[in-house]
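User: Teach me something about this protein's shape.
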Amino acid sequence: MPLTAAEIIAHPAFPQVIWKLEPAKKGKCPVASGRGGPIKLAYEIHGTGPRKIVWIMGLGAFKWYWQRQINDFGHDESTKYSCLIFDSRGMGESDKPLMRYSTSEMARDTLELLEHVGWTEERSVHIVGISMGGMIAQEMALLEPERIASLSLVSTAAQLVNTIGYFENLRNRINIFIPKSIDAQIAEVKTRVSSSWLAEPDADCDFPTNGDRFAAQELTKRNDTEGFTRRGFICQALAAGWHKKSAEQIREIGDRVGRERIMVMHGTEDNLISVPHGEVLARELGGEGGGISKMIFEGRGHYLPLEERREFKRLIGRMVQKTEEL
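Assistant: First, the predicted structure itself:
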């Protein structure tokens, strides 16, 4: 049986669920002056290597959700990679203004952050975006395609469409905003991850199962009542819901970034952004025949960096290597 929220919080491993990974640099960057700001974004850079990776997290998630990738790239290979993580507007340690958010405005935030840290050269940054972060990455590719060395779009979509039936889709959207007990909240979030991965022994060896560790991370976030707010979550959710890129715009990304520089990843059991979204995105970018790399993970859910950590590292590393040589 999965541990309850109370049991997880009482577990001796709970205080260490967020790893203490010391950044090479951290700070807060004011963005969006003249666009409703300034809005301060909290960021960290891990590693000092020449290959620069920007990791863009999804809806309602904090920058430390990338901790496994930051450990793998920014610490284990710190002289090879520099990794930038940040809290998007509305989450974590970043400002949470009450205003209309959009993925295009959040992309501009990210580009201004890159200016702040000095990552400005042509073909100098490798962008990895998951879920809403992948939507932000698409907007960045439309705004400044020449900046991008590679573009990895994970569990994301050009626009959210109904692939599961009208009433189930409506229920899922409404359920996001209905107050629930903490155990019910955690149980719902777990449905976005493959059940086989959740049931496996904890890969980090502290909790009974991966599911218990996953729940501990969610509890840590939800217990941070200043970092995770209803207002910030709703503002981000509306931005993701409004994201809509036409087939022509997606084709333009392929044309201007270069299809050999783009990878699409998706899990077949993703019930938050279903796999047809990833199939359509890859096809509209130009398809595998046009040079797009497409990776579909059988039986995996929405959180591929967790569920497929080793393979995810290999694929991102390979994409960085390949595009550095172009």
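Now, about its shape. DSSP finds 13 helices and eight strands in the chain. The mean pLDDT is 95. If you'd like, I can walk through any region in more detail.
User: That's plenty for now, thanks!
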